[in-house]
Write a sequence for this structure.
């Protein structure tokens, strides 16, 4: 059979009829970190492959998945299963898996009062599996969810991401706001990584948080929803805990309430693993960007994800126990410190704890500008113009 | 050259003159987890090996160690270095390394008020590198330190361990108390692992804590010192944190003060990594048991050590930042819960929170006995006899 390994891409021929798990073992691929796809259908590790098959092995950087032996049955309806969730010791058919995913999101929203009826939600979409799955689920749950895409200027990767987002919005008849970092703020992420003092991933994260918040306020959204999944949250919590950064730990909640100048932020996928969101996006036929960001190599977050994946492989459920256990039993211990007082940044007016916000400081450094309060003329021009995110694609 | 890989043991022939790091890379050995020894001398990863050399590669399950390039110099005296500590970005010659190790122990004792002048210390010794290194250091620092060895009944492994401990005591002119679990309490660890409901490692840990405490009280010691190193403490903290077992986290301190029926417990090696204690024991010429306990395979603590070692390899200093950072910045957050009230176990009289202590419950299960308060006749016999640890080796 022909095996197409993705990211980096290479093709391998494997002889004979074999089970999926045997083929993966031969290729030294951890089955908990990939989707195995044949003719647009997911396979479980117990499925048989024959000589004529062509399969794709698509990394998700995470997950669930199987035990040896007999074919798997759906926990809910007893039909043949297509996806296995080892941490729940369960398998599901396609429809029951969709039900499971939506229930997890519904429960996250309910338990943490993420979205009230009538609130306008902005979904921060990158073109990846998580954010598109989130948007898809929120639309299915009948929330009024508008996408927002921020163009980061990372060459073909960004071009393809923007295209994927536009197409998704069109197919779902949803609105999307397209913002371009270079057009609006004068730099792109590759430049910021080279010129600034922060790592590329740090300045990218800072830029996204800033722009999404500002754009949400400008367009009158009540809530920004992001596609952070259980793996993201567990890896971040691990990083913060290894350094006992107690203020960061305290803030790692699936809901951050609105404050002066800060829109409410929610993470409705925080109960779902990366394997689960990837399987959902794939089975729903969502065309998402499989490639990793080309700038992400060696990123600390990835090392923490790898550490959590190894622990999960040895003891399924470790990630959920760690992150959801933190929310249940430990978050209260860290919550003591009162939130620092905020004041408007003297450059942009967004809330910050110092004189200038981190975004304006980073931007000034990248562009080689001095930080200074805007002139009266600039303030007057800003208050009368509608200079904000532009392109809006309606459904 | 002939390379003797230890634990499990195998010999490999490697052709040509090579650097230590090249040989280790060929053998897929992580240099941060082994001592490399030629003719009873430690090698650094930059040392050259030639065709005629015979070297031993001895696992320590942890640590420090090197960058590429030039020969290393001692940070303190500038002579050629024999050991490298990557987390401190430092290397030391033999004597300065001994100085470094003793200073770390001295600092631990001072910072945490572990030992007051005139206090009698009992060192819990297993025959492994950590506990013998600790005993050696405490004797050098002129503490009155008596060893205590508990025979666990794990076949040849225990026989060899007891022999190593007896010989160390004799060479150093130190006293050691030898206790045998089967003789004193009616079971050994292999039996306990098979018959009890706890894992082998859990019942072994419980037995050691119980017997050492009881023996220390019986012999009038003020403090029990154990050889837990930084890797042990970091791995345990990781395990407790992954499950947010806040009561266990709160108790993970290098000093546990005395309470009713509980002697004070201290961990003077908690600032030293496993690689450091292994290098110290080796360079001091201490004959220690290199073999891992044969019952330990698959132990959760080892998985947590592996996870910490990978994180340490990517970012030297992670373990120290995690455990010492916890002590500095986070321990206070967990310390709130008042210690549970203790009462005497109705079987053995040792302090416990329930009616019978965990040790007596485990022992009853292993021996197939019913738990019951001792009869008056037993109490009378106990109070008049000196039925406790027996063999004492004087120096």
């Amino acid at each position: 059979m022909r095996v197409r390994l993705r990211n980096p891409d290479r093709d391998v021929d494997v002889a004979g009829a074999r089970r999926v798990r045997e083929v993966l073992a031969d290729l030294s691929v951890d089955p908990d970190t990939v989707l195995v796809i044949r003719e647009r259908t997911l396979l479980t590790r117990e499925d048989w492959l024959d000589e004529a098959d062509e399969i794709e092995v698509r990394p998700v950087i995470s997950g669930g998945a199987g035990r040896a032996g007999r074919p798997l049955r759906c926990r809910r309806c007893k039909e043949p299963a297509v996806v296995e969730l080892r941490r729940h010791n369960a398998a599901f058919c396609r429809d029951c898996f969709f039900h499971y995913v939506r229930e997890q999101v519904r429960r996250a929203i309910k338990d943490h009062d993420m979205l009230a009826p009538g609130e306008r939600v902005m979904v921060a979409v990158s073109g990846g599996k998580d954010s598109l799955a989130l948007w898809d689920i929120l639309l299915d749950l009948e929330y009024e969810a508008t996408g927002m895409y921020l163009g980061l200027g990372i060459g073909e990767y960004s071009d393809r991401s923007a295209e994927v987002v536009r197409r998704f919005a069109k197919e779902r008849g949803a609105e999307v706001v397209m913002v371009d970092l270079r057009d609006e703020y004068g730099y792109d992420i590759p430049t910021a990584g080279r010129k600034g003092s922060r790592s590329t991933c740090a300045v990218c994260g800072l830029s996204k948080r800033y722009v999404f918040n500002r754009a949400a306020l400008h367009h009158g959204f009540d809530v920004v929803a992001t596609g952070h999944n259980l793996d993201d949250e567990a890896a971040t919590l691990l990083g913060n805990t290894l350094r006992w950064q107690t203020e960061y730990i305290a803030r790692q909640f699936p809901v951050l309430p609105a404050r002066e100048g800060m829109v409410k932020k929610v993470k409705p996928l925080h109960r779902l693993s990366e394997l689960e969101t990837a399987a959902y996006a794939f089975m729903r036929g969502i065309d998402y960007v499989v490639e990793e960001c080309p700038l992400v190599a060696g990123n600390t977050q990835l090392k923490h994800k790898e550490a959590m994946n190894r622990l999960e492989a040895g003891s399924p459920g470790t990630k959920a126990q760690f992150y959801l256990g933190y929310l249940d039993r430990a978050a209260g211990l860290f919550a003591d410190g009162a939130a620092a007082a905020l004041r408007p940044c003297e450059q942009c007016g967004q809330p910050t704890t110092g004189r200038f916000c981190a975004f304006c400081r980073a931007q000034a450094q990248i562009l080689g500008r001095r930080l200074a309060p805007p002139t009266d003329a600039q303030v007057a021009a800003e208050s009368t113009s509608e200079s904000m995110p532009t392109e809006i694609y309606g459904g």
